[in-house]
What does this fold into?
Amino acid sequence: MDETKTYKVRDLSLAEEGQRKIDWAESRMPVMRALIKKFSKIRPLKGQRVAGCLHVTKETAVLVKALRAAGAKVSWSGCNPLSTQDSVAAALAADGISIFAWHGMSTKEVYWAIDRTLDMKPTLTLDDGADLIFTVHNRHKSLARTIIGGTEETTTGVHRLRAMADDGKLLYPVIAV
It folds into this structure.
């Protein structure tokens, strides 16, 4: 694959189907719609670069849209290769989002994709399972100097990160969500 590409998905021709799914999810998320509308005007994340490693679903795509509406540059990978919805990944790629995810990725491909999300040198991280944060700490430590914070949404990930913090090895603040 050309490593300068800003996406790798299974099949870009699935984008229209994925966009229909995203539109359906957004139509049932009134708070996110309101945030997108508000943030597109005030752009509180302008200048921030957000790397995310969460399930690539229609609901997550609405979150990605909200981050972009808030002014952030976004790069995404999937935290679980079996939960990635290929059509949603294609729709995000077609919409100009940097995304590296497809259903059924191997472990090697998952970590390759995480590395690609880090190519944009994030200032914020959003994680599910702490694989993105651990990749920063284990293979891209220099990035931790420019990351101002992150989130982790799983109990297991939070336990792992608390152990790192207790050992004085957590290189940037992470909020448990």
Observations:
- The longest strand covers residues 49-53.
- The mean pLDDT is 96.
- The CA atoms of residues 50 and 74 lie 5 Å apart.
